[in-house]
Design goal:
Layout: H1 5-22, H2 27-49, H3 69-100, H4 109-120, E1 130-131, E2 139-140
Antiparallel strand pairs: 1-2
Amino acid sequence: MTPSLTLAVTAGVLVAAGVYLLTERSLTRILMGVLVMSNGVNLLFLVAMGPAGNPAIIGAFDGATMSDPLPQAMVLTAIVITMAVSAFVITMAYRSFQLNGNDEVSDDIEDARIRALAERDDVSDSYEDATFSDTGEDVVSE
């Protein structure tokens, strides 16, 4: 397989679509984003592997004509990791559906509190505005 621009562009489109789907609030779309992005990265590994060659068996073939086994091993590892992440996301989606009746990720209470503070532009009582200098003396403004 010779590297081609078509395969590289296809890998880029798959990764971009996967990243877009990861930004959604539905866990089903997040799962689809993980799967699509994983396929794009695997395709990118195969494109970067270079042309196909002889099996990587030492002594059986000339070293110059052997294919590099490292990208193949990385793709197999990526497939296993994708399967584990997919199982985890499916489990979270199922549990969310059991508890809430949908698989959407809701805002955390702490996130809502921080957003409210940001909208009011308040700072906490423990905030200390200090200016640090290279001389070792810290200036605290009140």
